[in-house]
Amino acid sequence: MTYNWDNLPASLALDNPLWRYALAAWRSPEVEHACLELQARHWCVSHILIAAWLGTQDRHYEGEAESVRQWREQITGILRAARKQIPRQQSALSPFRKQLASAELEAERVELALAYESLKRPGKTDSNGPAQPDLTRNNLLTASPTPNFDLDTERLVDALVRHLPQDSFNGADTP
């Protein structure tokens, strides 16, 4: 099924607290490493970042909107797959590979904007529940592609919980 992208929200905010959180998280080499390692284990980096950001909001990760999933499958994923097909050692194709990487990053930005838009609706909060690191960990486990994982994956999740930003980067536009 092809999603009707004509129905994107007119007010889609590409620069939003979730995007700023993702940028701050990615500045940490430990977070970048853990995310890429988990991605190699079939985790979705967007899920990781959304789940972690929701932890800063005292909110539970409850999955993603259909528009976010469709965007990832039909746009971001296709750009990523195309980029990965181009060999790094092929210097003549390096500029093209870089352009695809740039387009992939912009597609991820739209993906997170769609997620942020869907999260403006009230979600399940947990202000009297576990402390933020525990809620973030629980959210990450919910975002996991499988309920059971090995010791190395467990260590990567622990590294994320330790190194992810604790600030939500909301400013005045809290969802």
What does this structure look like?
InterPro entries: CHP02444. It comes from Marinobacter mobilis. Residues 125-147 have a biased composition (Polar residues). The chain has 175 residues and is mostly helical. It has one domain (15-163). Helix content is 60%, strand content 0%. The protein is built from seven helices and no strands. It has helices at residues 17-26, 29-40, 45-56, 66-85, 94-119, 132-143, 151-163. Helix 2 (29-40) packs antiparallel against helix 7, helix 3 runs antiparallel to helix 6 and helix 4 packs antiparallel against helix 5. The longest helix has 26 residues, at 94-119. 30% of the residues are buried.
Keywords:
mainly alpha, 0% strand, single chain
